[in-house]
Design a protein that fits this description.
The protein is of the alpha/beta class and about 200 residues long. The chain contains 7 helices and 7 strands. The protein has one domain: Rossmann fold, CATH 3.40.50.
């Protein structure tokens, strides 16, 4: 099965710089090499760089747009359409899009980020999805560890890693383990017939 991995990150801002964009592209390449499907917010900056990396590695990328149509996506929101194999036009604006995007993913990777990234992180955290944080990428990514310590609501596995390949492979391992546990819950227990 192909896991769906969301890359959440800033569309613009201080941490959207050549170094972080290159790391995001490498994350996208790693997602494709792992046989996973990338999902993003169909936006500029970090998600766009990840989608570019996926295409470079011949993978699949799906974007969830805040817009209601392609024309709305391009003209009103000024968002890109390249590097995406499929764009879902949610029509729910940024906050609604964030919820649909995060819920559609099996795991979420945080790179850089601002308030929208924090929103996507909290949805994934509440849903107890595996989360990966690209360390030293700036923005919200550098604050997540403190936020989770302050929140201490429940245990949610968050993987912190500075290497894009290790980050993706760690999340894939978490997902495989979770999938295995879920399958075991779905398999009915064998009953032993009572000998009479």
């Amino acid at each position: 099965m192909s896991f769906k991995i969301c890359v959440s990150g800033a569309a613009e801002g201080d941490c959207v710089n050549p170094e972080t964009m290159a790391k995001a592209e490498k994350v996208g390449e790693a997602v494709a090499r792992a046989g996973a499907v990338l999902v993003t917010g169909a936006t500029t900056g970090i998600p766009h760089a990840a989608a570019k990396g996926v295409k470079k590695a011949k993978g699949i990328s799906i974007g969830f747009s805040p817009a209601a149509s392609r024309a709305d996506h391009v003209n009103r929101y000024k968002l890109p359409t390249n590097y995406l194999d499929l764009t879902v036009y949610t029509g729910f604006g940024y906050a609604g899009r964030n919820l649909i995007l995060t819920r559609s993913a099996d795991a979420v990777i945080i790179i850089c980020g601002r308030i929208g990234t924090l929103n996507e992180f909290t949805v994934a955290f509440e849903d107890r999805k595996p989360i990966g944080v690209l360390e030293d990428s700036g923005g919200m990514a550098d604050e997540i560890e403190d936020i989770t310590r302050i929140a201490h609501k429940h245990q949610c596995h968050v993987l912190y890693e500075s290497d894009p390949d290790k980050l993706v492979s760690g999340l894939i391992e978490d997902l495989k383990e979770q999938y295995k546990e879920d399958q075991e819950k779905l398999t009915p227990a064998k009953t032993v017939e009572d000998p009479e």
